[in-house]
Amino acid sequence: MKVQGRPQVSAVAPSLKISDYFGSQVFGLKEMQETLATPVFKKVSTAIDKGTKIDMSTADEVATAVKSWALSKGATHYTHWFQPLTGSTAEKHDTFFDAMSGMEKFKGSALVQQEPDASSFPSGGIRTTFEARGYTAWDPSSPIFIFNQTLCIPTIFVSFTGEALDFKTPLIRSTEAINNAAVEICQYFDRNVKKVNPSLGVEQEYFVIDRALYATRPDLVMAGRTVFGHNPARGQQLDDHYFGSIPSRVKEYMKDFEIEALKLGIPVSTRHNEVAPGQFEVAPLFEDINKATDHNLLLMDVMEKVAEKHGLKVLFHEKPFAGLNGSGKHNNWSLITDTGVNLFQPSNSARENLQFLCFLVATLKAVYKNADLLRASIASAGNDFRLGANEAPPAIISVFLGSTLTGILDELEKNGNIKIEKGDNMYMKLGISKIPEIILDNTDRNRTSPFAFTGNKFEFRAVGSSANPAGPMTALNVIVADVLKELKKDIDKEIEGGKEKKIAIVNVLRKYIKESKKIRFEGDGYSEEWEKEAEKRGLSNLKSTAEALDILLSKQVTDLYKRHNVLNEKELHARHEIRLENYVMKVQIESRVMGDLALNHIIPTAIRYQNQLIVNANGLKGLGLDHRAAIETIEEVSKHIEALKSNVSNMIEARKRVNKVEDITEKAKLYSSEVKDAYFDKIRYAVDKMELLVDDEYWPLVKYREMLFLK
After folding, report:
1. Average pLDDT over the chain, rounded to whole?
2. CA separation, residue 413 to residues 7, 231, 450, 458, 678 (Å)
3. In 160-259, beta strands by DSSP E
4. What is the pLDDT of residues 214-244, one digit of tens each?
5. Can you give 269-326 as a three-state secondary structure string?
């Protein structure tokens, strides 16, 4: 085939040593220190560290330095790089060149703020079409970089009236909320702690297929996933692709996008084959959560652009191929103090282990209290197809700790009331004096858990591969910040009642362990027994995005986000509406693609093949030969054609009815139940059965075996 004969594009690094070019396209602290006057650099570094405002004179100094650096790197344009609620990044390029003066110009005002037309970005009713003005504002905590000869300035995006229209703004606010709450708890143990930063490492899963094969599949082009396609005889059942030798063409692609990522300061460190054929993973080192989020979105952009150069197509949809593993974006989250301590890292010190337990138990309680919000944070049309199948976690939110930590918490809960005599080692009596330092080596992993403790961090495995990680990370920051505030209040109350500080902390932790016990689950998240057990425990099983998003309108969630100044009621309601509209449009597009392929491609092909079979059957009959096999095939094809025509027709009528519904919440639920759930599987079944019957030469769609195995 032509696919196998395609020329291989070699990736060439600018140097044998990564350290020679890492961050070469980034205007970071090092570049600032080298190009800015010391007082100016101090102001900027303080703004980055403490969130203080940068005055215009300082901005002018930075803009001058940035312009000189960018021009020396070959940049011709600049843009504010932001994250609107479309789910992708956005940019509007302006040239440095000023035709009036004949010179390149770039002022501080252009660095700090721009005014993109906001009328076409999703706003959820925050602004109307005639109120087009929106503002982007420089986020100095995320490095400026050059991509495709354009200087990119990471920014927030807000409406004319100040409401957040992006993912970055609430993430930054939530980071401040958890910083404030975490520092208060740390002060019980170490007065030197003045700041706590959430840290994030994002494992990005993706599929790679040949670009020409991709172009022949209208469903992949229009919907990002294959709406039809019978599983090949060999899929992932042999587990031979996982961690196997990387196909040479894909390996060169990986090397190429890694080189570009490293130039942009993205610390990519891991590459490997994933479980499904054609599926792979890339993972960077941990970074500050804001920078890590920006880097993940930038990495996805880099991967897509570099794939074009190699004649490949990268797929970030959560479930591009039915019956195979879906793709996730495993968010590995932890909290790091400015003294260098990971608050989720067990220690040899009993005192530090008590601090570790404070943050561990607070996180457990936060997930228990807000499980539905976490489910909503990862809800999308694509992720609905992935959750609960082929090693993806189920829609039921639970926490996996492993046997070691489970035993420690059980011991603490049981022994919390033991009498502590003077001179007694309290930590030893409570069973927390010798928590194994590396929990990861003392417990198994549970791939069916949506939220698992993995040694010194929590891994939020339920996040979908195409998602902006800022959404779920904002929710996680907020819920943990809220419980940490509650923890501080409850401990202080115990201390005011006369309890010694360590005893007060243990008493409250014991109470929290009992309250959050229902969220802990160590078993098989796919089993029917777990669904029944989860229902007994009162845990939700929200399988559809349409129903999962209802929680965003609850008083509990509204008050939570308002309490921590992350999202006001107007911003929260806007996000609810935008995400429901997005869900409706995604299901609608998939429905239309299914109808188009069925009526204009599959049925005509099946009828043409059926006609050939009829000619064959009549010929056999005329010769007096047995023609029963041909008749049976004709009848089977006819049965599937009729089922396909009937179901497509009924689906179209259902879509027309649902489109008349004005309330977006009701419309989304109806699209889920009366369009997707009612017809998608039925239509697919008929098409996939016909794929096995119709002559391969006639079949109009490239098959799974070709897309997944031909590189």
Report:
1. 90
2. 63, 49, 25, 22, 47
3. 196-210
4. 999 999 999 999 999 998 877 776 667 777 7
5. EEEEECCCCCEEEEEECCEEHHHHHHHHHHHHHHHHHHHHHCCEEEECCCCCCCCCCC
Sequence-ordered strand ranges (E) for 431-487 = 451-453, 458-460
For the segment 118-144, the average pLDDT, to the nearest whole number, is: 76
In our burial notation (b when 16+ CB lie closer than 10 A, e otherwise), range 525-564 reads: bbeeebbebbeebebbebbbbbbbbbbbeeeebbebbeeb
Are 289 and 201 in contact by the 8 Å Cβ rule? The answer is no
Report how far residue 580's alpha carbon sits from residue 669's, in angstroms, rounded to the nearest whole number: 9
Residue 629's pLDDT band (boundaries 50, 70, 90)? confident
Residue 400: strand, helix, or coil:
strand
**pLDDT at site 237:** 65
Q: Does pLDDT of 423 surpass 80? A: no
Label residues 407-429 b or e (16+ Cβ within 10 Å = b): ebbeebbeebeeeeeeeeebbee
DSSP per-residue codes, 563-585: HTTS--HHHHHHHHHHHHHHHHH
- Burial 277-306, CB ≥16 within 10 A → b, else e: bbbbbbbbebbbbbbbbbbbbbbbbbbbeb
Structure tokens, 299? 């990495």
- How far, in Å, CA of 711 to CA of 704, rounded? 13
Window from 322-326, 349-353, 379-383, 545-549 with minimum mean pLDDT: 349-353
Give the H or E element holding residue 707.
helix 704-709
Which tokens belong to 142?
Answer: 């995320």
Cα–Cα distance measured from residue 157 to residue 136, given in angstroms and rounded to the nearest whole number: 4
Residue count of the chain: 711
The confidence band for 616, taking pLDDT boundaries of 50, 70 and 90, is confident
Contact 315, 322 (CB under 8 A): no
SS3 state of residue 708: helix
Q: Does the structure show a pLDDT above 70 at 413?
A: yes
pLDDT of residue 353 exceeding 60? yes
Q: What is the pLDDT of residues 657-685, one digit of tens each?
A: 999 999 999 999 999 999 999 999 999 99
214 vs 308: CA distance, rounded Å: 12
User: Can you name the residues that pair with 95 across neighbouring β-strands?
Assistant: 77
Q: How far apart are the first and last CA of the chain?
A: 10
Among positive and negative, which fits the CA dihedral 310, 316, 319, 320? negative
Q: What is the pLDDT of residues 28-60, one digit of tens each?
A: 889 999 999 999 999 999 888 877 888 899 999
| DSSP H stretches of helix in 51-167 | 56-72, 108-112
Secondary structure (3-state) at 233: coil
Q: Which residue has the tokens 């425990």?
A: 537
DSSP 673: I
Contact status, residue 327 vs residue 314, Cβ threshold 8 Å = no
Please state, in angstroms and as integers, the Cα–Cα distance from residue 104 to each residue in 63, 70, 137, 321, following that order.
12, 11, 22, 49
Q: What is the pTM of this model?
A: 0.94
